[in-house]
Design goal:
α6 (about 195-210) runs parallel beside α9 (about 240-250). The longest helix has 17 residues, at about 20-35. The chain starts with 6 loop residues before the first strand and ends in a 9-residue tail after the last strand. The chain is about 35% helix and about 20% strand. β3 and β4 form a beta hairpin. The protein is built from nine helices and eleven strands. The protein has helices spanning about 20-35, 70-75, 85-95, 105-110, 125-140, 195-210, 210-215, 230-235, 240-250, and strands at about 5-10, 10-15, 50-55, 60, 65, 145, 155-160, 165-170, 175-185, 220-225, 255-260. The strands form three sheets. It has a five-stranded mixed beta sheet with strand order 9-8-7-10-11. It has a four-stranded antiparallel beta sheet with strand order 3-4-5-6. The chain has a two-stranded antiparallel ribbon with strand order 1-2. The chain is α+β, with helices and mostly antiparallel strands.
Length: about 270
């Protein structure tokens, strides 16, 4: 079967298609394979040619994806944690939808710090603010666009000593850029010692790894406010980690677009 025809999770499957014609062609292919290997499906559980479908806690509709109502209600009703285990449960629930939240790791840091063994459990103002902000962001029905081959694509990245993040954007029919997915990550103790330009490269590299299935084989722009990135890439003598990162960058078809920074970024 061709790649991308069907998405399977346990005993559930979904066949994505851009229109009815493609949907019927893919359905035929799936049914032929199922028949060949003796796989049976209950007709009463099947839904065909739906414009809106709920799958794995997400609602997919008209080229967009968002958390299901059931999941957002679960987030909204989650009680204020009083134990580490409850914090872990909340982070597990919200973390499943972290692609919808810009800078998720940085926002969640006061909560995730509570799960470290060497930290006492003290749920104070910083933790409450993080808890309420994550609930608010997820219950406001965040929406992402579904990635489409051939569309104008941009990758925006940013980094600091506390963490780094990125957003993958695509131009829609309205001519505007819409988010496809967000990613963020706290810096490790070792990464906190990186220079500003090393952090910028780290942000780009990890964003490329995260969005690899979207970006590999497609031309895209990397938008950043740190001119040091390009200067680093042009250096002949690179430190080991950056030299390794440049090899990964060579896999992709991209161009760097530099914008005037809101802050200075020095090498």
């Amino acid at each position: 079967m061709r790649k991308g025809v069907v998405i399977i999770y346990m005993d559930d499957l979904i066949i994505p298609a851009k229109d009815e014609k493609e949907g019927l062609e893919k359905l035929r292919e799936v049914l032929e394979v199922a028949s060949k290997y003796g796989l049976e499906m209950k007709f009463k559980k099947c839904q065909f040619l739906r414009r809106k479908v709920e799958f794995l806690g997400h609602v997919v509709e008209n080229g967009t994806i968002r958390p299901s109502i059931a999941k957002t209600i679960a987030v909204k009703k989650f009680p204020v944690p009083t134990t580490v285990k409850q914090v872990q449960s909340f982070l597990g629930l919200t973390g499943y939808f972290r692609k919808f939240i810009p800078a998720y790791s940085q926002i969640a840091k006061p909560l995730s710090d509570l799960t470290r063994k060497d930290n006492p459990f003290m749920f104070e103002q910083p933790q409450m603010e993080a808890f309420e902000k994550l609930k608010k962001l997820l219950t406001e029905s965040p929406v992402l666009s579904i990635f489409q081959q051939g569309k104008t694509t941009e990758l925006h990245t940013d980094a600091s000593q506390q963490g780094y993040g990125a957003v993958l954007l695509q131009e829609a029919e309205d001519g505007k850029l819409h988010p496809v997915q967000y990613m963020s990550q706290k810096t490790t103790p070792a990464e906190e010692k990186y220079s500003s330009y090393e952090l910028e490269v780290l942000a780009v590299v990890n964003a490329l790894k995260k969005f690899r299935t979207y970006l590999l084989g497609n031309h895209f722009k990397i938008i950043m406010d740190c001119l040091a990135f390009q200067k680093t890439m042009d250096k002949k003598d690179l430190v080991t980690c950056i030299a390794r990162w440049t090899l990964l960058l060579e896999e992709y078809d991209y161009e760097i677009v530099y914008i005037v920074p809101a802050r200075e970024c020095n090498m």
